[in-house]
Design brief:
Blueprint (H helix, E strand, L loop, with lengths): L2 E5 L4 H12 L3 E6 L10 H4 L4 E5 L14 E4 L6 H6 L1 H22 L2 E7 L26 H21 L3 E6 L2 E2 L10 H11 L3 E4 L5 E3 L1 E2 H13 L5 E4 L4 E3 H12 L5 E4 L14 H7 L7 H15 L1
Parallel strand pairs: 1-2, 1-4, 2-3, 4-5, 5-6, 6-11, 7-10, 8-13
Antiparallel strand pairs: 9-12
Bound molecules: nicotinamide-adenine-dinucleotide and uridine-5'-diphosphate (UDP).
Length: 310
């Protein structure tokens, strides 16, 4: 059994990761300042005696008593709408929060996992994106608070590995969806689900021909745990390569919900990436991991949660 700190524990991915680690027999310490998280995401975790929770902003000094075997840093603003609303908090959690959590991992001699993002590739000029693609990010652009904080975070992780010999993992996560996403976080699947379930028009931004590749949450959590348990200290893409246009996604959501909602086309947010699809050959060959849940199935499994939120 290991003792593991999870930052961003009240969030979508963090709470599912806590549950999976607790099921695996680990002791889990969750930490979150709840800027975008929801405490009810931790209802299952609180049932375990091996779970404890600290409300704390990880951009401030972090004290955890006792040993730690791993520090998993998931805290961030993660939805484009939220990080546009909170650009400075986003930069601080990617930079200062990563620094504080790395310092803690060094102090405890713990393995460190950083949740990076497909956004380090920006608006990619190659598709799919392999890990050695260096990206196309505008450092002064409207999404740069997120993209650059994650790129800086990766760099800081690299420096702690090189300078202090810290045992590190870097997951580049691609669009993930499922229960426990905030219905109001502005990401495309919560928006489309809410709209389809309430009979409002689905809001497709731009012409809807931009693409994303959507991974169901259980697959993502399996991938993150496989990466943690590996010894790969280089970045690894984790995502589902099933690439769809946003128009296709809208059709699938309408179909699985059985909704009569129409579609309204709205202005495309500035610098919205045109394509995004992970090359997962590294994860497949080195972790023996690949996603299993098809888009339709994952959306169907998510409907009861989104209905309850409404
Ligand atoms: P989320 O918003 O649901 O969860 C993030 C959590 O971090 C929230 O509970 C929030 O309150 C917390 N947090 C933010 N700033 C904090 C701070 N300073 N101190 C303490 N807690 C803080 O997001 P998510 O979708 O679960 O994403 C988790 C991680 O995965 C993030 O680092 C995100 O960048 C990354 N990621 C997610 C996706 C995705 O599709 N979900 C894609 C790429 C990368
Ligand atoms: N999008 C959309 N309608 C919405 C919300 C998002 O068409 O109501 C589009 C958005 O412009 C982007 C894609 O869906 O092209 C995915 O957006 P999301 O905010 O989920 O995440 P991103 O991949 O941009 O980080």
């Amino acid at each position: 059994m290991s003792r593991i700190l999870v930052t961003g524990a009240a969030g979508f991915l963090g709470s599912h990761l806590c549950d999976q680690l607790l099921e695996g027999g680990h002791e889990v310490i969750g930490m979150d300042n709840r800027v975008s998280g929801q405490t009810e995401n931790l209802d299952d975790a609180f049932e375990h005696s091996a779970f404890s929770f600290y409300e704390h902003d990880v951009t401030e000094f972090i004290h955890v008593a006792g040993d730690l075997d791993a520090v998993l840093h998931l805290a961030s603003l993660a939805s484009p709408v939220f990080y546009r609303d909170y650009p400075i908090k986003t930069l601080k959690v990617g930079a200062l929060g990563t620094h504080k959590t790395l310092g803690l991992a060094k102090e405890k001699d713990a393995t460190y996992l950083f949740t990076s993002t497909s956004e380090v590739y920006g608006d990619p000029e190659v598709n799919p994106q392999p890990e050695d693609y260096r990206g196309n990010v505008d450092p002064y652009g409207p999404r740069s608070c997120y993209d650059e904080s994650k790129r800086y975070g990766e760099s800081l992780v690299r420096a702690y590995r090189d300078k202090h010999g810290l045992d590190v993992r870097v997951a580049r996560i691609f669009n993930t969806y499922g229960p426990r996403m905030r219905i109001d976080d502005g990401r495309v699947i919560p928006n489309f689900m809410r709209q389809a379930l309430t009979g409002e028009d689905l809001t497709v931004y731009g012409d809807g021909e931009q693409t994303r590749s959507f991974c169901y949450v259980s697959d993502m959590i399996d991938g993150l745990v496989a990466l943690l348990e590996s010894d790969i200290e280089e970045p690894v893409n984790i995502g589902n390569p099933d690439e769809r246009t946003i128009n296709e996604l809208a059709e699938v959501v309408l179909d699985v919900v059985g909704s009569n909602s129409g579609i309204t086309y709205e202005e495309l947010p500035p610098q919205d990436p045109e394509v995004r699809r992970p090359d997962i050959s590294k994860a497949t060959s080195e972790l023996g991991w690949k996603p299993e849940i098809p888009l339709r199935e994952g959306l169907i499994d998510s409907i009861p949660y989104f209905k309850k939120q409404i």
